[in-house]
Amino acid sequence: MLRSAVFFLLLAHYSLVQAQSAGVFPQQYFRNPLGVPIELSANFGEVRKDHFHMGLDIRTRQRVNLPVYAAAEGYISRISIQRYGYGKAIYIQHPEGYITVYGHLNGFYDTLDRYIVQKQYKDEQWEQDFSLPAGLFPVSKGQFIALSGNTGSSGGPHLHFEIRDTRTGNNLNPLLFGMGVADNIAPVLQGLYWYDRRYSTYQAGAKRIPFTGAKGSYTVNGGDTVRLGSSKVSFAVRAEDRTNSSPFLFGIYEASLWMDDSLRCDFQINNFSYPDSRYVNGSIDYNVFLQSGQGIQHLSQLPGNRLSVYNTDDARGVIPFTDTLPHTVRMVLRDVAGNSTVVQFVVRYDPALEENLFFTMNSVAFPPGQARQLKEQQVDASFSELAFYDMVPFVLSGQPAGSWPQASGAAGLHNATVPVHDNYTVQLPVKPEMAAYADQLLMQLESGRYKLIQKAKPAAAGWYKGSFNRLGTVQLIADTVAPTIATYGWKNGQTFTNQANLHIRCNDNNGEVQHFRALLDGQWLLFTHSTSDYIYTFDGHCGIGPHTLTVSVQDVAGNTTTKEFQFTKKAPTNGGNKRRK
């Protein structure tokens, strides 16, 4: 009883400190950026592929073109238009030291839209990323700035909303600013695990601990003692959070691990940068996430994980056992609203359950925090000190080059189940008979279900290099096939009357085309991009009468295709194609 009382006193003090820390953020400064009540489809800190989710995804009732409003006064400081990422996005600088971001927009308010289109035509470039001076586009709190959409890397209509710290550039958890999201539901525990930390987490996988419970309180099945077959362990959880107004499951905000009333590890997902967000791959069981999409989050800090959200003991949350006595473990999960989930159980080290693991004969130890070079006759790979989060029993394999278009042997750099934090450089020798295709060589990486291709760059004599941030099988291939260009939904020579746009589809044998350029009667024409589709919406740049559309595309290897199309534009019969007011 005394030990339990001490724990809860410590927990209460700890919660107060955290609440005071959260309270430094103004609670009435930002308004809802939409005109409908906030319903989330994703929160800050959700585990995503290669990153934590860095803002809120706010539902737009499965529709586009809902009005978007400035969350506070300030000025539009940056515009970004990308094929992927946040698509069309607005950045607003606020005088209190914050920046808000509004992503996946369908369009901008008219004055801003005209400015952007003029710049696109001046630059002859659809994709944009530029800063704006303070006095050019000032905004007041609640001012209409854009229409919501589904542009960029978006799986459905919604508004992505972020708050950033101007001074540090870090993203902050918007829910800490009192965004009016009702929540009295505690996080839900979905999985409980331990790891044998005598070994790398890439050797010893997660071991499940069965449990029962609900509504914020959980116990190990039957209240049994968990016997651990290791003298050095760490723990992990799989958990989700919920809010009152949404059916979606969200990432947890905070998790802490206590043993015998001593805090061993805690993390709060609330304040870090976009580059550091890639440390998500060292904060989870990467292999499990890769295979199933389930985010098992470590309650320890892996040796190569430098993410700042952790508060750990000297052992970084890894618990050594020097006896076989029972010890009490408590895990506390919290959301931003303060709802807590607690799981408590007893553990005991049992030497009889130990299982010894060994590196395979063909593996080489790649420790975290050390730069490494792997140089063999047919491959040269260099990794930085940031590359790995835990010890990797690295295995190099290889296969000889096959027939066309293979221009080198295939080098297997371990496998896709181990993450790499930053880019590494790999070099391969080209087959002598393929040297004539030096200007059309690509380096291809096959990593699980992903295939990445880039232009191979010359290195040492007869060698070519590339740079990737995933492990897998790399190989040089030759590409002499030019991309294709085709009309979509219309035919060459067609007459347009009430149609809203021109649609062109471009494809390449090795993925998407690298460059696209369209000229209307010799003048650059603005096409938006979406995967292989390119769309021009009729406007004042295309007058009544016959026209020649010239389209040129280039692939990664540099192969180019150019096509000409003829069409005639007639005046609309129903007053269509008017610009939005």
TrEMBL record:
Protein name: Peptidase M23
Top-rank lineage group of the source organism: Bacteria
GO molecular function: metalloendopeptidase activity
Keyword Iron appears in the UniProt entry: no
Keywords noted in UniProt: Signal
Signal sequence bounds: 1-19
Species per Swiss-Prot/TrEMBL record: Filimonas zeae
Segments forming domain M23ase beta-sheet core: 52-108, 139-174
